[in-house]
Amino acid sequence: MKLLDKSELIKDHEITALDNLEMFCRTIGHKNDDYNAFLEINEGSAHERAEAIDKKIENGEKVGKLAGLVIGIKSNINVEDFHITAASKTLENYLGSYDATVVKRIKQEDGIIIGMTNMDEFAAGSSTETSYFGHTENPAAPGRIPGGSSGGSAVAVAAEMCDLSIGSDTGGSIRNPASHCGVVGFKPTYGVVSRQGLLDLAMSFDQIGPFSRDVSGAALLMDVIGGYDETECTSVKWDSPKFTDQLGQNSLEGTSLGVVKQFFDVSDDKIVNIVEESIDKMKDMGAEVHELSFDYIDLCLPTYYLINYVEFFSATRKYDGRKYGERIEEVCGEEVLRRIYMGSYISQKEFSGKYYKKALQARSLIKREVNKLLQNVDVIVGPTVPMLPHKIGTSLEPMDMYSYDVLTVIANLAGIPAGSMKAGEVNGIPVGIQIQGKPFEDSKILGIMSALDDADPEI
């Protein structure tokens, strides 16, 4: 059953919000000790909300778009009265005193927030192994990483512990775990979803977005969390569409797909084969394929990480142990400390011109070239992640870990929308196909993903 259909059944009271919630509470009770997807849940407040929603439906009152659906929130997004730890000892006792804009909107539309999901510490990672509260297991590929940094949110959906979840995507932190866990993950155009209430990793890249088991759920959640927010400086005023209106396409006739040679060159052959099969299906549905070339792929990772280091260093200066939490450098993990030290070094006056300013220039070049690629096609399709997830506990050098991001950082550097959905499996391990589009054509991507989802419902 698709999420959109389920939401209608709840509104029609064929399924009660309380029954839906209790089913997930039982699943969390059975599975969370094994998967470590949720760091904190609050069944009490969730039950109160479910009962209130059921009462509204019984009384014939209007209910919101998410009525009765159960949602997990990444632990770097503020939710009142939950611990907002960013999976770090630094903030292990920090209790949220307000709701982020996306959380307010979810509550206004009668979504039920069940708890906070695990993640890489301060979103600095691609595996959800750096969490202070322990790593998260991948239910779709046991013994392997679920991806990161929003691994807990992806696993919560993949393991059917909630209907939907939200994460943050700075360089692929939604799309990477969506690929590894075999679910749908979507990063909106920069500025389309408010960042108010999100703990920064790198503010010029960060975007909040949805996870779902199918595209209809991601579109439904985008209907709720998308749109202008006057309280947030990066929020963009635009004519926000109804994303769910794009669902139900059964043809891709007239759709032009760009296939970038270099995206396939850097990817494992087994992944390439799976993604090419999905592209062939899209051609069978009427899409036209155009071969493209992008000569700057080797520039993307260093550009992204140089900017990331500087912005992360700046963002962490508030964690000085005086106002709340502990001093970050004294309690954080190795990867967070690496980024703080690198950001501090690059930020120094004598090095900023040599590294940071050149990285900003390179970012402008990459953004310009990506927009050129998209000029004559509707979307670019290719692998989400270039390699299969490693086994949990494998020791990797930092650059080996960063290489997971080579195909996902491009969308963040360019500020464009991008989604990932399951294309198939390699030896039982999910493989994602990434679809990237022009700025503010988020709904077009979701429409194409929906058509592919409906054409291959068993994937």
UniProtKB/TrEMBL annotation:
Active site positions, chain numbering: K74 (charge relay system), S149 (charge relay system), S173 (acyl-ester intermediate)
The organism of origin for this protein: Methanobacterium lacus (strain AL-21)
Catalytic activity reported: L-glutamyl-tRNA(Gln) + L-glutamine + ATP + H2O = L-glutaminyl-tRNA(Gln) + L-glutamate + ADP + phosphate + H(+)
Gene Ontology CC terms, in alphabetical order: glutamyl-tRNA(Gln) amidotransferase complex
GO molecular function, one term: transferase activity
Described function: Allows the formation of correctly charged Gln-tRNA(Gln) through the transamidation of misacylated Glu-tRNA(Gln) in organisms which lack glutaminyl-tRNA synthetase. The reaction takes place in the presence of glutamine and ATP through an activated gamma-phospho-Glu-tRNA(Gln).
GO biological process: translation
Pfam family, one: Amidase
Protein name: Glutamyl-tRNA(Gln) amidotransferase subunit A
The encoding gene: gatA
The protein's enzyme class: ligase
Annotated ranges, domain Amidase: 20-446
Assembly behavior: Heterotrimer of A, B and C subunits.
Keywords tagged on the record: ATP-binding, Ligase, Nucleotide-binding, Protein biosynthesis, Transferase
Family indicated by similarity: Belongs to the amidase family. GatA subfamily.
UniProt EC number: 6.3.5.7
KW Nucleus (keyword) present: no
